[in-house]
Amino acid sequence: MRGTLLGGVMASVMAGALTLGAAPAAQARDGIGPGGAAALGLLGGLAVGGAIAAANDPYYPGKPVYRAPPPPVYVEGPICHFERRETIDPYGDIYVRRVRVCE
User: Fold this and answer.
1) DSSP labels for 86-98?
2) 78 within a domain of the structure (yes/no)
3) 82 occurs within a structural domain
4) How many structural domains comprise the chain?
C-alpha cells in the first residue's frame, strides 16, 4: 500500500513540476491563466498517479487459475513395506535391521 501511494505521489509531483517549470513562449489567455494551468497540471498528475497505483493492486492477484486434477494412481504389482527384525550374529550380538517385505 505504501509503495503504490508513494508511486502516485511521485507521479503527481513530477507532472506538477513539468507543468510549472516550462513557461510558454506566448500566451493566448483563453481563460485558464497561470494559476489554472498549475491546477490542471496537478489534477492531471493525480489522475495519472491514481491510474498507475490502481494497476499495481496487491490485494487482487488476478484471475484464478483452474487446473484439472491429476489422474488417479493405480498400484500394480506386489505391495511392499519395511519391518524391523532382530538378527543375531555368530558372536551373540543382537542387531535390529530393516527388511523389505513384499506380499
Assistant:
1) EEE-TTS-EEEEE
2) no
3) no
4) 1
